[in-house]
């Protein structure tokens, strides 16, 4: 079975949506209120809150409420785990492709077999 943290599925699920990626891009510039995050999107506030919950479930975002204002901030730890997993996958595939390249190179060095004429 796969050997990776179980919440990694939540991270990739959260990253799968372009709206959530846009929210993350905005939060990479600094903390923002839910109202500030909602401004560039043509959606109702409850819909945006659903996106924020998915990001929080993935561990990518943390929010805190002060009075009537909910402030969100980026949590880089979950992204680093996803980056680490992707780096491992890249290393595996690079090694496989290197072996394939070596094999193809050995095929090109062998003299072609002569066909018998009957």
Distance between the termini: 54 Å
What's the total count of β strands?
3
The percentage of residues in β strands lies in 5-15%
Major β-sheet annotation: 3 strands, antiparallel
N-to-C order of helices and strands? HHEHHEEH
Uncertain spans, ≥5 residues at pLDDT below 50? none
Number of DSSP helical runs: 5
Strand order within the widest beta sheet = 1-3-2
From the alpha carbons, calculate the radius of gyration and give it in angstroms: 24 Å
Mean of residue pLDDT values: 89
Overview of this structure, please?
The structure is a single chain. The N and C termini lie far apart (54 Å). The relative contact order is 0.13. The protein has a three-stranded antiparallel beta sheet with strand order 1-3-2. The chain has 118 residues and is mainly alpha-helical. Strand 2 (61-66) and strand 3 (69-74) form a beta hairpin. Helix 1 runs antiparallel to helix 4 (45-57). It is built from five helices and three strands; from the N terminus they run ααβααββα.
Index terms:
single chain, 118 residues, 3-stranded antiparallel beta sheet, 5 helices
Short précis:
The protein is mainly alpha-helical.
Describe the secondary structure blueprint for this structure.
Elements: H1 8-15, H2 18-27, E1 32-33, H3 34-38, H4 45-57, E2 61-66, E3 69-74, H5 76-109
Antiparallel strand pairs: 1-3, 2-3
Helix pairs in contact: 1-4
């Amino acid at each position: 079975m796969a050997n990776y943290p179980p919440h990694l599925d939540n991270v990739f699920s959260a990253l799968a949506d372009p709206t959530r990626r846009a929210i993350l891009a905005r939060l990479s510039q600094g903390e923002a209120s839910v109202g500030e995050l909602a401004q560039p999107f043509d959606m109702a506030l409850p819909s945006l809150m659903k996106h924020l919950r998915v990001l929080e479930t993935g561990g990518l975002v943390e929010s805190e409420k002060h009075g009537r204002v909910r402030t969100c901030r980026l949590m880089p730890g979950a992204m680093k785990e996803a980056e680490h997993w992707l780096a491992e996958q890249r290393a595996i595939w690079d090694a496989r492709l290197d072996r394939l390249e070596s094999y193809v190179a050995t095929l090109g060095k062998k003299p072609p077999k002569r066909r018998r004429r009957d």
